[in-house]
Amino acid sequence: MSLGEFAISKPFTLGVELELQIVNRHDYDLTPGAADLLRLVERHKMAADVKPEITSSMIELSTGVCERHPQVIEQLHEVRDVLVECAGQQNLRLCGGGTHAFQDWSRRRIFDTPRFHHVSQLYGYLSKQFTVFGQHVHIGCPSPDQALWLLHAMSRFVPHVIALSASSPYVQGYDTGFHSARLNSVFAFPMSGRAPYVLTWDGFKAYFEKMTRTGVVESMKDFYWDIRPKPEFGTIEVRVMDTPLTVEKAAAIAVYLQCVARWLVLERPFEPHEDDYLAYTYNRFQACRFGLDGEVVDPRTAEHQTLRTLIAQTLRDVEMHAIELRAERGLALIRDQLASHHGTDANWLRAIQADEHYLPEVVRRQCLRFEGQGS
To answer: What's the whole-model pTM score?
Structure first.
């Protein structure tokens, strides 16, 4: 299959995708309600889109192309409110979070589409264990070569947004000790991890043709990389984030990436290099395991710093770009997160469990937060 041409996008435009949990109101376990929920949602006209995901206990919402933080927030609020209303009519609730706290993966059902059945046949039980929930952010690029440059320049910021979004401490009813355990499930797939170090579109097309010739992949959808190019949209897609517990935090993380992208492209504070990946997996692990307190290493200087410190520095670096992009409100939320007692959504979830000792109550509180009622 041909890779196709790379569509041209307006630089630094945004698209946000969120995968959501569908739970029942009885015991707050996951429930296969996607098909009925989608039928109700289809009656509403919105700027955002809602579609199925691989198992029937999850759905994905996606904004249209946005330029500024207020537009992202407006679309996320609109689709959130429609989804909450439709879920209520089905006696369902929705929530964020990178994993469901106590669901049994073996009870999941594959959503009935040819692609999802193909994935299930190929990956076996991994496809049901892939009932995890992430945020994806698309960033518009004016050329394919700039997209690949930005993809690799953004790689050192992957731990930042893993830590900021971390909301998956529980798996199968157990505290994993991780802030983001979700990415352990993603990493099980053979085409996950980092993209190959290629900086030209011609070079990337040659790589893609080699991969398709082996029969290992058929399309870009078969690559589960942390950041991947999306030729049909003219974007790069950052895929490492857990779904945050609120749409406000999801929007804040999206514009953090937008501001970083603009800073990287317009100011060129450094040039990407393949050696940037020497500590990539280690830094990624630190963010997943310890959240904002993870200690990452700069492969060029061998300096170790906490993610909390690095994110605070990055906020200072992108300040003027935040003003230009009208992203100050979103970045203010991230500053508040760095200063807060909980820090990550994962710690917030753990605090509820420490008080209640009952994971269904944790999920109920997640639902309240998603609906805009919880604190």
So the answer is: 0.94
Whether the pLDDT of residue 66 is over 80: the answer is yes
DSSP state of 66: B
Three-state helix/strand/coil letters over 152-181: HHHHHHHHHHHHHHCCECEECCEECCCCEC
DSSP string, 183-227: HHHHTTSTTEEPPP---SHHHHHHHHHHHHHHTS-SSGGG-EESE
Contacts of 49 (CB under 8 A, 6+ apart): 61, 62, 64
Burial class (CB in 10 A: 0-12, 13-18, 19+), 40: middle
Residues contacting residue 9 through CB under 8 Å, at least 6 positions apart: 65, 140, 141, 142, 233, 234, 235
The Cα–Cα gap between 42 and 364 comes to 26
Share of residues in the chain with pLDDT > 90 (%): 81
Tokens 């959503």, residue located: 111
